[in-house]
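Form 7-S
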Amino acid sequence: MDGSRVSCSDSGPGSETAPFCSVQRAVDLAGPGQTVSVAAGTYRESVRVTRSGTAEAPITIRLKDEGELDVRYRPYFGVDGLTVSGVSHVVIRGVSASGGNAVVSDAHNVTLERSAFDTPDSGTALRITDGSSRVVLARDTIAARVFAAGLVVEQGSTETVLTTSVLSTSVIGRTSPPVPPLVAVNGAPGTVITGNTLHADCGIVIGLDAGSTGSSVRNNVIATVMKGSTCGGSQGVRVSADSTERTVSDYNLFDVGEGSPYIWAGTAYASLDTFRTATGQGSHDLTGSATTSYDECRQHDVPDAGSGTVDSADAAVPGQLALDFYGRERSDDPAVPNRGTGVGYHDRGAVERTDCMKLHVNGTWKGSRAVALDGQLLHSWTGPTTVTVDWGDGSSAQLPVGQSPFTLVLDHSYVRLGTYQVTVTALSSTASASTTVTAYTSGNGYTPVPPTRVLDTRTDPDPDAGGRTGPIPARATRAVKVPDSIPADVTALVLNVTAVNPKEPGFLTVYRWALPETSSLNFEAGEVVANLVTVDTRSALIYNGSAGTTDVVVDIAGYYRQSGSPGYGYTPLSPVRLLDTRPESPTGTARTVPANGQLTIAVAGTAGLPAQGVEAVTLNVTAVNAKASGHVTVHPGGTPRPNASNLNFASGRIVPNAVIVKTGGDGTVTLYNGSSAPVDLLVDLQGYYTASGGLAFVPTLPKRLTDTRETGGGGSISPLTTRPVDVHDLGIMHEGWFPARAVVLNTTVVTPTAPGYLTVFPDDTGRPTASNLNFTAGRTVANLTTSKISADGHVSFFNGSGGYTHLLVDRVGFFY
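Output:
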């Protein structure tokens, strides 16, 4: 039942979807073997239980969502009063009855468990009366205040069991005796009081009177707070003369100060020794401190480490439970000798001093491939403890642990980028704790895809223009729709972007959301120009920065990704020439590529590359000596040629473009000449991708690093000279404490005065025999470049021409 639900009704079926509103309605209908589940909350009603179960099929009334017991807060369903009258075989669990209105009358085989009872200024928190029998109170909380008693068992009730419960009374404001006992047993033979923690401000803690024979008081912690003469003094256990027959008291711990631990048959005994000598009882009783302290690991008070309660109870006495007040199993403290009976290590009182171990760990990225773990281990008991970390990649680390709380700090670098499940386990001889955290590398790996056309304005409708096809207008933007086959969580796309037949000179900028002050490729009117573009987004925009319209063709070459299957790591190289088909080439590596012909070259195992495991390569491909207009398509060796192009050229033009291409199964790539005449090709290797190892990519917003045309830009680059450019950016360059090793740049030569080439390389190495960009006089040419970075954060640009040229350098990302 759940009175808070809008759908509740006392005339309904009492189901999960249509619960009863009142507890009483549900209780009135319950029969043998049935369970009344009550949602947590406060119900302004007094509940009376009048229906019985059977020994084989009791009626159970319980909190609906008991779940795991939260030691800091016990959930209850609260009622104004509870009466269990004239019934048998009933179990009630998780109720809170306040106001001194809880009574069990003429009831038999009734259990009240994990419940709470309290009373205000007078009365009794819980009363067992009218000849009730075999009533069990287990792991309950009973509290009384000022003039009130906590628990009263009376009027011929028999075999009542009070076990593993916490009872307290407060007489704040009380100025004179008498103070009622916290537990008052009057005329109730066979009462068992076992394993409880009882704190009273003063007065009698447990009283057995009026013929309560055959009772048992064992394994309890019995304490009074006001240990002097205030409010009449403090007494532990009082057993009247007519209640001593067959009554046993032993294995208790008393903390009553100057008060008497026992008043037995009218005689007060100031010490346990005199009591034992006179009565033969209490041979294992102790006096000592009953103080507790808060344990951060357990998150509740526990007996102090030196307390006499630890490992000293009789585990075999009637009413002793295997679980303590908080539902924890009994534990053997290895630092304390076992002084108890039975298994020997149960603690006295309701709360067991159990071992506890808790582990809290956070995982964060640290650089492109590394993760950092930080956390805390709490361990209640001392003793050797070891922490083992399974990093989720087949490797592990182990370290010894110092005193609790122990701060855990560990780093780990992964060979492969990705998301990992890291399991941290702490283990001692008495406890263990384990937790798993998700750790991910911040860098991104590259996944090449078969070149796929994702935009062609000549044929694709523009949804922002009513579905019409056509070029991008001047100073306008067109969105690139990425196919669903590309994962949603990619961090950057690699696109080959081609401007086709622009009406005016200008540029294209490919970007994510805010138009940057950078360009991706530059063009003259009427030409076809391509450039490889890396953009930090999954859904790119293309801006036409010219005064006229232009068609645009976009092919996707691959993507970078951080999670899931994160792809390949990158190894940058100083540029190495793999191919030069020109007859005058000193290497003479191949012949001119014929019209509509192709050339396959080996990549893996050449120029210092591994023979195995090279998944993709970064190339700079240049078309030279073209006799007719056409295009070049680069694709994995041994695979069908895709419907895409990597660079476009006109007759007599020298055109470069960067290419990232997956290698074929035999480690080769194929270059196709899509023109009606032969063409020479230059191929320079810039780096390669592997599944394991290599660097990780971190995209950045496009940023212009240099423009030699502007004031402070250094002016044009002189013939056959080198210009260093600082690509260093402290907030990004040292991202995660790991300096960047390579940078991705869009490099543009502007208005060169003579034909030539540009070579990009780290300025702390020798200039390689390779080119990144080729140009003719007066033409603006852009190309994507990936270069190593020198130790001081610079990249050099060599002007390999006999004239002057201006230079634009835009950064789009780093490799770490």
